[in-house]
Amino acid sequence: MNSRNKYGYLFIAPFFIVFSIFGIYPILLSLYMSFTDYKGIGSPFNANWVGLQQYARLLKDTYFLQAFINTWKIWGVNIILQLALALILAVIFSDVRLKLKGVSLYRAIFYLPNLMTVSSVALLFLFILDWQHGALNGLLLKAGFISKPVNWLGQPQTAQLSVSLIQTWLWFGHTFIIIFAGIEGISKDYFEAAMIDGASRTQTFFKVTLPLLKPIMIYVVITSLIGGLQLFEIPFLMSQNGLGGPEGSLVTMVLYLYNQAFKYRNFGYAAAVAYGLFFIILIFSIFVFKGMFKEEA
Amino acid sequence: MNKRNFIRGILYAALTLLALICLIPFAMMIINSTRSNTEIVRGFTLIPGKSLIENYKNMMYHMDVSDGVFKGIWLGYKNSFIIAISVTILSGYFSALTAYGFYAYDFKGKKVLFILILIMMMIPSQLGLLGFYELNKALKTLDSYIPLIVPSIATPFTVFFMRQYLVSTMHPALLEAARIDGANEFSIFHKIVLPIMLPAIATMSIFTFIGAWNNYLIPLTIIVSPHKYPLPVLMGYLKGGKVSENLGSMYLAISMSVAPIIIAFMFLSKYIISSISAGSVKE
Hints:
Shape of chain A: globular
Largest interface: A-B, 95 and 90 residues
Shape of chain B: globular
Radius of gyration of chain B: 24 Å
Number of strands of chain B: 0
Largest sheet of chain A: none
Helix content of chain B: over 70%
CATH class of the domain at 67-240 in chain B: Mainly Alpha
CATH topology of chain A: MetI-like fold
Strand content of chain B: under 5%
Largest sheet of chain B: none
CATH class of chain A: Mainly Alpha
Oligomer: heterodimer
């Protein structure tokens, strides 16, 4: 190694020093805490070592299971709507025969919600969806779609659906931009060849566009999965700072983690929840990745 | 031909409807912040009210009194700006420095360290949350901005992005020429490499700033004094207090908290969208 290359260490040193302290150490400390009965008082190193007890508790915890199911329901509805909407939009805007104008304006408008402060968005919708004074019920009543106010956040189903729809509202523009860029990146030759062979629009979509978009779709689904399984702000702020909404329907996994740690001071158990969540994300990411590539083979 | 125009008409109508759905919540937010409580309760209209100043005064009044310490939404602005700007500067500079270190030099362990960065990009942030809290408790840095600002020196995704940028745009010959002229390694970085990397730094800075501005979970757990709250945490805090009893004031507070982002987006939307298209940048 020549002497100049030693500078490499100097250049990357600040990153790795901070990274070790604020990035890696907390992850290891969380792991250590998950093997103790630490209650958030004093130091985790003085707490009792309990081995795998917290993990055993996690596997039997019906509240965590409920949080797991809630999170999946909310994410599942959202990703299906979001992908469908983004795909339809991308196909419409890239259609050579339709030649729609104004892509950049629509794209900017669709994307705008994504940049918003999520906690402000949560509060905004809390007021818009309010049972008695909310703007949505007011609008729907005026238009005659409903005859009496709907308590959107008062029932488990509509509460979860509301959060799913807000998530879709926040993210479909982002997904649309990525998928649209993907379609634009596909060589026009494929579409021309399909047209010459007499393929219909539907055939072109399912046989040409969709298979070529697969890597991008995997990217979208996995990143959305990682983000979606960590859903916190919206359910937290829409359920009176973490109470969890009607029948606990808005308790997501990270919300459960937060409550276990900062409300009930079960730091040891909450750390086990964090690792449980991590493994769930890991397993499903691999599952999505493998599943979507296998189809191709 | 007529049939195609008809389809087009329907599509434009549907797209416009979708665009309205995207914009209406913002319209409600802005319009309602100009209306009085009774007007809002009566129902939504698109016509602005006359109570903007009253709502503002009411909001400021209740923010001041609610806990005796907190001094209005402008303090929240100041806090958020201090945090977001510090984070953006640190993350931009140190990510460029790190990326260049990986790009320009061959040292032992380089591959392993870079793979470590890639792995850390994939790890969900909540995994270390409790450890992070405990660490700061031990360091006595809870309720300070250190845990919100200093960790941005190590931003894995930004390093990754900038290294890719260097690989595709940098000419090694340029570095050689500078070395022959006798420049030392750090002045090469500051005088030659940094200016070349500016476009990449600018792109990442937009996303870093917005991410830092919008960050909620970490400040929620770290900051306990209301007068130190950044805006997103402050908004959640207001909800439980007197301000939220007046809907107009609350809508105004929400509007004010997102105003900087909306203004930034107006100027940078083309830039932001093309960055996402090009690099699939994820917040």
